[in-house]
Specification:
Elements lengths: L1 E7 L15 H17 L5 E4 L3 H14 L5 E3 L8 H8 L8 H18 L9 H18 L6 E5 L1 H11 L3 H8 L8 E7 L2 E9 L15
Helix pairs in contact: 1-2, 3-4, 5-6, 6-7
Keywords: Hydrolase
Protein name: Histidine phosphatase family protein
InterPro entries: His_Pase_superF_clade-1, His_PPase_superfam, Mito_Ser/Thr_phosphatase
């Protein structure tokens, strides 16, 4: 049975003009998760990444440490939801100044976004986001050979939606799981005759002990 490893990107630049850029801490986290994947001794037949800079840079940094030269296939279906658009339409905007207050407003905005279904004002609806995230996973799982492993660099919202969907609760999954995903956390799925199943969510032993200072949620 093969496996699919989903990696959340390293810390982005919260509060900066360009949020999408990895922070210095984000690059450190990406190096450490690459070392953790190397320690596990897993060989990957396919590697995917979203097209956002924070996802691509996490992939490049981690893969260099891992020593994996499998070409990265970029796919925008692995991209995060547009948090700026959602916050603007469902929370009156959410300035990136205070992290806790921003999280409170974003949680409320995401709840309204999910509840609005296809009729909401955002450029991308919740059903559309869920559909393209699960379709990207299904495409990757279907392309893996027997016993092959896949690796994906994506974002917290995608992880919450995908994990929630596999558990049969996609909406609550997004709302409950998204907010606790850590930067460069590892989610592991099994892929085989029985389909795709969630084996573990948000693993982060590489961010504990001597690396505890690297733990971040935003």
């Amino acid at each position: 049975m093969g496996a699919i490893y989903l990696i959340r990107h390293g810390q982005a630049s919260f509060g900066a003009a360009d949020y999408d850029a990895l922070s210095p801490l984000g690059f450190e986290q990406s190096t450490v998760v690459g070392a953790e994947l190397k320690r596990r001794g897993v060989e990957f037949a396919q590697v995917r990444s979203g097209t956002l800079a924070r996802q691509r840079d996490t992939a490049a940094t981690a893969l260099k440490v891992l020593g994996c030269d499998v070409p990265v296939i970029e796919d925008e279906r692995w991209n995060e939801y547009d948090h700026v658009d959602i916050a603007a339409h469902h929370a009156g905007g959410a300035p990136q100044q205070d992290s806790r207050e921003y999280q409170r407003l974003l949680d409320a905005a995401l709840t309204a976004w999910v509840d609005s279904g296809d009729t909401g004002p955002c450029a991308e609806s919740w059903p559309a986001f869920l559909g393209r995230s699960t379709a990207a996973l299904a495409e990757l799982a279907g392309s893996l050979g027997k016993g092959e492993n896949g690796l994906v660099f994506t974002s917290g919202g995608v992880l919450g939606a995908v994990a929630g969907s596999l558990l049969g609760t996609p909406g609550p999954g997004l709302l409950k799981l998204n907010r606790v995903t850590v930067n460069t956390g590892i989610t592991k799925l099994t892929s085989g005759r029985g389909g795709v199943n969630l084996l573990s969510f948000n693993e982060h032993p590489h961010l504990e002990g001597e690396n505890a200072r690297l733990l971040s949620y935003r």
